[in-house]
C-alpha cells in the first residue's frame, strides 16, 4: 500500500497521479480508513469474523473478464460516491487505486496490490479505478446481504444520515 496526495493533474485516471507528497497510514486512520496487509485469505477470515462480515464475493475488473463494458465500468467506479455500509476490499491479484476525500475535501490516493485489505467507513466520499495494468481481482466482504449501491456525490448525499454521522464521528473528532 502506498498513500499520497492526488496531484489533480489531467491524465488518465489509471495513472499514478502521485504528487510526491506521501501520507502515513496513521493519517488514513484519522479519516476512518482501516488498512491491513494480509498475506493470505486465512487472515482475511480472521478479520471477517472479528468484524461480523457474513458474506463475500469476488470481482475481476479487467478487459478480458468484462469485455466491451470494461471502460464504462471503470469510469462508473471513478464517480465520486459514498455507501451506507462499510466498503471492504481485499486485493487477491493485480492492483488498483482507492481515492478518498480528506477533511479538507482534497483527494488522497491509496494504491493497493495483492495482499492489501482496506475498509472504508460508511459516508466517506471515495472512488476506485484500476491502475495502468487494467487488472484488479478483489474479494468483497459484506456484513449482511451483498450490496454495493453507490450514492453519487450531490446535495442529497451531503445530507445523507451516514454522511452526517461520518462528519460528526470522524471528521470533527480530529
TrEMBL record:
- Would you say which domain of life the source belongs to? Eukaryota
Which SUPFAM superfamilies does this UniProt record tie to the protein? RmlC-like cupins
Q: Which cofactor does it need?
A: Fe(2+); Ni(2+)
Q: Where does the chain bind Fe(2+)?
A: 81, 83, 87, 126
Q: Name one GO biological process term.
A: L-methionine salvage from methylthioadenosine
Listed CDD domains: cupin_ARD (cd02232)
List the catalytic activities from the record. Answer: 1,2-dihydroxy-5-(methylsulfanyl)pent-1-en-3-one + O2 = 3-(methylsulfanyl)propanoate + CO + formate + 2 H(+); 1,2-dihydroxy-5-(methylsulfanyl)pent-1-en-3-one + O2 = 4-methylsulfanyl-2-oxobutanoate + formate + 2 H(+)
Q: Name one GO molecular function term.
A: acireductone dioxygenase (Ni2+-requiring) activity
A cellular component term from Gene Ontology for this protein is: nucleus
Keyword list (alphabetical) reads:
Amino-acid biosynthesis, Cytoplasm, Dioxygenase, Iron, Metal-binding, Methionine biosynthesis, Nickel, Nucleus, Oxidoreductase
Q: Which residues bind Ni(2+) per the record?
A: 81, 83, 87, 126
Spell out the family assignment given in the record's similarity comment: Belongs to the acireductone dioxygenase (ARD) family.
Described function: Catalyzes 2 different reactions between oxygen and the acireductone 1,2-dihydroxy-3-keto-5-methylthiopentene (DHK-MTPene) depending upon the metal bound in the active site. Fe-containing acireductone dioxygenase (Fe-ARD) produces formate and 2-keto-4-methylthiobutyrate (KMTB), the alpha-ketoacid precursor of methionine in the methionine recycle pathway. Ni-containing acireductone dioxygenase (Ni-ARD) produces methylthiopropionate, carbon monoxide and formate, and does not lie on the methionine recycle pathway.
Recorded protein name is Acireductone dioxygenase
